[in-house]
Amino acid sequence: MSKPNVHTCDLKQDTFGLPKLPPNASCHRRFTRRVRKCLTLNPNSTSSKRFFRNRSTMIAEQRRHLRGPSFIIHPFSTFNRIREAVFCLLWTIEMIVSPFYMSFVHVETIYYRRTHKDTAYEQDKFFTIYKNFLSPLEGVLTIMFFVTGYVNKGTKEIVIEPTKIWKNYLTTYYSIDLLMNLKFGIYTEITRNLYLVNMICMLRAGTVLTYLKEMVLNFKMREEVHDCLRLFMITLIILNSYTCFYYYIPWLCGDEDFPEHSWAVRANIAPESGVAKSKAYMESLECIVVHFFGAGEGLHGTVLEDRLQKFMLVIVMISGRMWTLYVIACVLKIFSVVTISESKYEEYLLQLEVFMRQKRLPQVLRSRLLEYYRYKYQNHFFNEQAIFSTLSSYLRQELMLYGARKLIAKVELFKALPRSVVGAIISNTRQIVYLPTDVIAKAEKNNLKVILLNISILSRPELLL
Fold it and tell me: Rounded to an integer, what is the distance from CA 430 to the centroid of its chain?
């Protein structure tokens, strides 16, 4: 039921700051406006709400962007969120696929050309998709960096000036992206250098992890989820890279052929044996995993003549121990942060137990003290005074009003008073929790206290003035 003399506006509010179009506007103008809307700052996005303090600063930044060149992509726009997601996906594929093509596919290609000189090597279906779709899309994403604004991490300033954007990109990741896009037009004669140059995509791992964190936070997930995904992704990339190099380096050191005493020949996964690339990869992965995590020495072991294999496995084992310790430290940090309030509560509860034993309190009083602590802190300890001391007076008043909202709704006097007066009254009160059978007040002649009761099923908290 609507309130009398109150108008509720049902018109859709446009928060993008673009001029309205007439009803008879052409399709071209409508399409242009939608594109401009996707390129400018989206005040309703989660990332914008995290970065900006209030909506007025969003609108001011939006107007600043709309006054600039129309081709500049705002870092907090809807289009940029999509661009970051596509970039994260493509470069993750690159970091996993590039080592595989550098090692297993390259070795098989060279062997096939030696044994079948009159027949061309037939590439797999994924390489066709990669060549005709994924690689051109990577080139488009690289060009977009020239027209996408960025946030200066030092000053927290949003840069949308074209010259500053170009200068920043040219001095940071342009050379890396340029080397990655050099593979265009040279697919016909695949060389060793092509595969090795494409490994430079690993230097973009930091950007991928940054975009991954933004996506996790935009979905309103906890930051601990990003930490777990980050550790899993880095572990996967490390194991995949070690697997490919473990197979590729003996072949490269043997002048593009596996020596007779190499582990690949002993495991019967060299190209001469006709084993599929997938089986050779799984054999190499099994050996890397057991040495990386210290689970054993694998199915094939080592021989005295193969010193290169021993050297590679030593590097894998040392880095595996270091990475395992780092992962354990990160996991312990996550759990310590998540459960810090519960740990503090258990610590204070233990202190209470020692205090009660030292004072030799009766069992009835002990039970009442434990019940009081459980209700007051709800199994989570927090220093309310320390938190309130860091807040402004306005925020403290807002928190007190919110905490006493049920009491305000029950007391008729508070309903008639202005909000500022109610806030002043509440801020000058103190909250006391009483247990069942506790005496709240006694009849006295000069009792000037005003007691406000908020009765519930569990207990009887009240505010004493």
Answer: 41
**With contact defined as beta carbons under 8 Å apart, do 81 and 47 qualify?**
yes
In the 3-class helix/strand/coil scheme, how is 71-134 assigned residue by residue? CCECCCEHHHHHHHHHHHHHHHHHHHHHHHHHHHHHHHHHHHHHHCCCCCCCCCHHHHHHHHHH
Map residue 161 onto helix, strand or coil. coil
The single-letter DSSP state of residue 152 is E
Q: What is the pLDDT of residue 188?
A: 47
Cα 320 from Cα 288, distance rounded (Å): 10
Output the tens digit of pLDDT for each of the chain's 465 residues: 445 556 666 655 555 667 788 888 888 888 888 999 999 999 889 999 999 988 889 989 999 999 999 999 999 999 999 999 999 999 999 999 999 988 998 888 888 888 877 676 677 788 788 878 888 899 999 999 999 999 998 888 999 999 999 999 999 999 999 888 876 544 445 555 667 788 889 999 999 999 999 999 999 888 889 999 999 999 999 999 999 999 999 998 988 889 888 899 999 999 888 888 999 999 999 999 999 998 877 777 777 788 899 999 999 999 999 999 999 998 888 776 556 666 677 777 788 888 888 888 888 788 878 877 777 776 666 666 666 677 777 777 777 777 777 777 777 777 777 877 777 777 777 666 666 666 666 666 566 666 666 555 434 444 444
Longest Cα pair distance anywhere in the chain, in angstroms?
A: 114
Under 8 Å between Cβ of 316 and 209:
no
Nearest to 142 by CA among 98, 179, 171, 167: 179
pLDDT at residue 192, rounded to an integer: 56
Question: Per the structure block, which two tokens stand in for 464?
Answer: 């004493």
Contact of 434 with 460, CB cutoff 8 Å: yes
Q: Classify 324 as helix, strand or coil.
A: helix
- CA-nearest of 459, 456, 391, 393 to 424 is 393
Task: Look at residues 268, 265, 272 and name the one whose alpha carbon lies nearest to residue 250.
Answer: 265
Tell me the CB-side half-sphere exposure of residue 124, using CA atoms within 13 A: 14
CA distance 161 to 150: 10
Q: Is the full-model pTM beyond 0.85?
A: no
Report the alpha-carbon distance of residue 92 to residue 84 in Å, rounded.
12
What are the CA-CA distances from residue 119 to residues 19, 114, 186, 375, 418 (Å)? 63, 10, 19, 80, 89
Reduced DSSP (H G I as helix, E B as strand, rest coil) percent helix, strand, coil of the chain, to 5: 65, 5, 30
